[in-house]
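Backbone-to-sequence.
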């Protein structure tokens, strides 16, 4: 086997934790204001528990977990390990996740956990309301990365107007390429016409197919986009109105999500079973090989070990050359992008000056309006630079991934002396 006893013990300890936790994380990602909290309230609660009227949230995620009898309390977990309980209401939770109450997450809240008794969650599905992806801060990136590393899937909440933008497409591609399962929900606000909805869906579908082709994401047919009127779904849930619920389109998405959540425990068990069988097979092969070596003559074993050592040295030399090439490529990429960023910043500075001159001529000359205008222009240019950098990173990661996949795993070619003797005796 290719791993030490310590590494093997750690691997099986992780298997044990995953089996006992029965936790299948599915974050809901989308730009600020796309309707994530409205969708999750409609999916998981009979009354609004997640705040839905905030202008801006912090980088505090909210987890929704299953409980047969919800306590009506939310657990607030802090970065230093402290815990606090609060009422599981939109007003109480807003005190921890809204920028107005907790600016820049100065309270260092790690996450908030609320309970729901929806059958959708009883197989271990954990839904997560992530921060909006409109303008990602360093903290938001880290929060998103942490959950997406644990996730078994992700729900991307798309808009009808505007449909997928360039920055959203970059975000979707970045995480879709790394997760086995992705759900796409297009939110339809009540005042959006049928033609707008279908036009937005067609645009979103076209962009998703392009992203899948560009980033080698395997597809079995076209991506499924569930069109859901989240406001109508929430109203139907609150008023117990079956007509609104049916018209909202939420039921089809909920059924798809629940069907997939029923599969995840079996997929997890099957994956771990396959890994254990592979380890047992490798262990038995190693035992057989060792028994054969013990019964073989010394000269033959030494010759085999020498040949194996030479092969292993060549393998290590090849690895070192490959990693040296990759380090050089990373350094070159980093240097090139730093120069690009300097150029983009100079261009952005010029664009900001031109736009501000235009606004000054329009009469915005001082006070909060001028400050707001400057912040808006800086935000636009910062987003453009962020998009360019992320696109370059995505393309470079594809190249690195392909290079890593070309590295072959070490395989021993030592002779199974026991099998050789059996073959010789049978032939004689």
């Amino acid at each position: 086997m290719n791993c030490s006893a310590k590494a093997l013990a750690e691997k099986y300890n992780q298997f044990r934790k995953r089996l006992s936790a029965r936790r299948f994380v599915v974050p809901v990602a989308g730009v600020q204001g796309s309707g994530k909290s409205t969708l999750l309230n409609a999916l998981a609660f009979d009354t609004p528990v997640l705040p839905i009227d905030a202008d801006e949230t912090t980088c505090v995620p909210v987890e929704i977990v299953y409980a047969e009898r919800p306590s009506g309390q939310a657990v607030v977990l802090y970065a230093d390990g402290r815990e606090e309980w609060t009422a599981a209401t939109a007003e109480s939770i807003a005190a921890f996740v809204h920028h107005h109450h907790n600016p820049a997450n100065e309270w260092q809240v790690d996450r908030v956990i609320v309970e729901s008794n929806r059958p959708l969650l009883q197989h271990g599905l954990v839904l997560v309301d992530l921060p909006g992806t409109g303008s990602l801060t360093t903290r938001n990136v880290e929060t998103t990365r942490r959950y997406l590393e644990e996730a078994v899937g992700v729900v991307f909440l798309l808009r009808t107007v505007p449909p997928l933008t360039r920055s959203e497409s970059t975000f979707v591609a970045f995480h879709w390429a790394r997760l086995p399962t992705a759900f796409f929900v297009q939110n339809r606000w009540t005042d959006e016409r049928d033609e707008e909805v279908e036009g937005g869906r067609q645009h979103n579908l076209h962009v998703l197919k392009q992203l899948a082709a560009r980033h080698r994401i395997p597809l079995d047919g076209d991506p499924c986009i569930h069109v859901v009127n989240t406001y109508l779904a929430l109203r139907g849930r609150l008023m117990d109105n079956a007509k609104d619920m049916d018209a909202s389109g939420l039921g089809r998405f909920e059924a798809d999500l629940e069907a997939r959540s029923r599969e995840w425990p079996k997929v997890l068990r099957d994956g771990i079973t396959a890994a254990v069988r592979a380890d047992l097979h490798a262990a038995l092969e190693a035992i057989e090989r060792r028994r054969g070596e013990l019964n073989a003559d010394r000269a033959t074993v030494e010759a085999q070990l020498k040949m194996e050592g030479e092969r292993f040295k060549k393998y290590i030399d090849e690895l070192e050359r490959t990693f040296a090439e990759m380090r050089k490529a990373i350094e070159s990429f980093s240097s090139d992008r730093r120069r690009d960023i300097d150029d983009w910043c100079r261009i952005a500075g010029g664009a900001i000056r031109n736009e501000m001159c235009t606004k000054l001529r329009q009469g915005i000359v001082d006070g909060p309006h001028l400050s707001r205008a400057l912040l808006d222009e800086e935000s636009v240019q910062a987003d453009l630079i962020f998009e360019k950098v992320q696109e370059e990173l995505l393309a470079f990661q594809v190249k690195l991934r392909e290079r890593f996949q070309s590295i072959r795993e070490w395989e021993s070619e030592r002779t199974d002396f026991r099998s050789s003797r059996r073959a010789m005796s049978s032939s004689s």
